[in-house]
Amino acid sequence: MKKIIFFIILLITIKMSSQNKQVLYDFADLPQTLLLNPAIEPSYKFHVGLPFLSGISSNIGSSNFKLTDIFANDGRNINDKISSVINSISSRDFVAINTQIEIINAGFRLRDNYYINFGFYQEIDAIGYFPRDLLVFFNEGNATNLNRPFSASHIRYKFDYLGVLHAGISKKINDKLSVGGRFKIYSSSINLQSNNNTATFTTVNGQNSVYRHVFSNVNVNLLTSGLIENNEYIDDASSIVKNTFFGSNANLGLGFDFGLNYKISDQLQFSASLLDIGFITYKNNVKNTRISGDHIFEGVEFEYNANSNIDYWAQIDQAFKDQLPNTEDEVAYTSFRPVKLNAALKYSFGEQRRLLCYDDVYKDYYTDALGVQLFNVFRPLSPQLALTAFYEKAISKKTRTKITYTIDDFSYANIGFGFSTQVSKLNFYALVDNILEFSNLSSANSISFQLGFNLIFN
Amino acid sequence: MKFSKLIFLFVLCFSLTSCYEKLDFDQLDNYVYEPIFTSSLTSFTLVPGQFFNSQGVQENSIVDETRFEIFEANIVKDNVVQLDFYAEIKNEFDRDVTINIDFLDDNDREIYTFSTINVRSGELNFTYLEEIEISQNPDIVNVTKVKIEASLENTGTQMNPNSTEEFEFKSSVTAYIQTKL
Questions:
Q1: Which CATH architecture has domain B33-180?
Q2: ipTM of the predicted assembly exceeds 0.90
């Protein structure tokens, strides 16, 4: 119990910054930027990511409150602190997690105008909106909240653990325009989701009883796949992992990424991408729970009829079952992936240099660049937008840096820093976010990182 | 600069510039979960005719009971610290009515008996509150039934069985939960 509560508190306090990889986007010709925009034109002949080490990313963030709000050793009463946190959060706040680990990633040039790349990565993608009414109900009870409707519409969450096999191609149409696309096959192992729920529970003063407990417009759906088999929770970790690698009980789906990159002038460039336009159909080990109906409970009404032997409690139980039926089924369902939008305008300036790309192909580049980026992920309740300004600097032909300033739902002062370098064929990159909070990570609003190793061949 | 040195430099830079405030997760040991849940319990409305048997003779006392299984929920059974029983009563009868409430276990053994509630004739806004400290009455978590007996004052005369005067009773129970994680 303690661990569960702690985990819930941790989830509440840790709010991931929604898959935005603003430092990585179009940075330093890294192979991983192709996953953010398949139209980016790499300057090398081929690349191979170090297996399991080419791309590791995770985003962590919080808004409205921080871990220190609850766990700081400040002498305040823990009950007061937790109540204060619950009261400070709205049902539009959410917890989101996105972590990706690349298992393989490779690409090669096909003729001069095409770059083909492919790979496989594992992803945990989850979002859970803060079920504020539910937490207030369980934290305070209904006695001090008469006439207050507790809404179950706040129950909105989605969790996916999946593997993604992908292959993409970028094509240079002409000197100004390049386009790209990526085909993805999803192999989902676990999915939990609940959305578009309705229901209120209200305790009001009654006429014929002290209280009326009103369950109104109840329609709650809890969908799961890959979690329960033969009415028992699946706890075999190896089979869970196998299903992300297209195991026998994997749930499959398809998706596409699209991107374009347009040079408005020699120094000005516009790029944009749409990622994860796709769906997954869940039909293996599905177990859905649905509750619907309306009901009013007013307690037991005695009849004082000596001739009958009424089982009032059984009547109440049956009334709940009849009017708020709780059903389980194994009906397959389809879920769309959260679509992500990236767009950027980049102005290059500074010293112009020439880079040997491959064979005898050279590419001119500027040492400095300034620009803005827009990121949006389409979530169940509303889109999550982030706007980033950036400055990129090539310290040498092989070493590049990038500084970003991002405004999003969580922070108005998120500064990120990226660093990529190459020694011989080995490339290393590391990107971190919200470095202003490094002075005290415990009170950080958000922190994210991406790092990895690639072998790059010219 | 060697590649390994570059990586070392990056990690060192991150390590030196980042620090964290020490957090005290043991505070959760002091967290007390203490919601208060309330629910209607029983209600009834009696008219004089209900006190008459099939032979037309007034019986001064009638009884009804129901199962009452709130202690089936472990969170209540293990963590309730106080139960409040509350009643609102209206007596339009021409005589006093007394109410006796018993909490019983599965074997109909009396676990908790309330003090007799006497509602005078014509009393239309009678309220009753009984606060039960669980620490003083630990057996109460074994309660599975509630029995309520309504008794008429013996005035020596029968009521009019066709009278529409009412005796109205409404009750609720409030459970105070208190537990650590």
A1: Sandwich (2.60)
A2: no
**Beta carbons of A438 and B31 less than 8 Å apart:** no
Global pTM reads 0.80
> A278: domain CATH number?
2.40.160
Cβ-Cβ contacts under 8 Å for B68 (sequence gap 6 or more): A300, A313, B41, B103, B143, B144, B145, B146
Give the closest of A68, A79, A212 to B21, CB-based: A68
- Whether residue A71 contacts residue B25, with contact meaning beta carbons closer than 8 Å, is answered with yes
Which of A137, A210, A318 is the mutation pick for testing B, counting most B CBs within 10 A? Answer: A210
Mutate to test the interface with B, among A69, A76, A302 (most CBs of B within 10 A): A302
User: Total structural domains in chain A?
Assistant: 1
Residues of chain A with C-beta less than 8 angstroms from the C-beta of B31: 5, 78-79, 82
| Nearest C-alpha neighbor of A40 from the set A386, A344, A276 | A344
pLDDT tens by residue, A373-407: 999 988 766 777 889 999 999 888 888 999 999 98
Q: Does residue B14 sit in helix, strand or coil? A: helix
Domain ranges of chain B: 33-180
Give the gap in angstroms from C-alpha B27 to the nearest C-alpha of chain A: 6
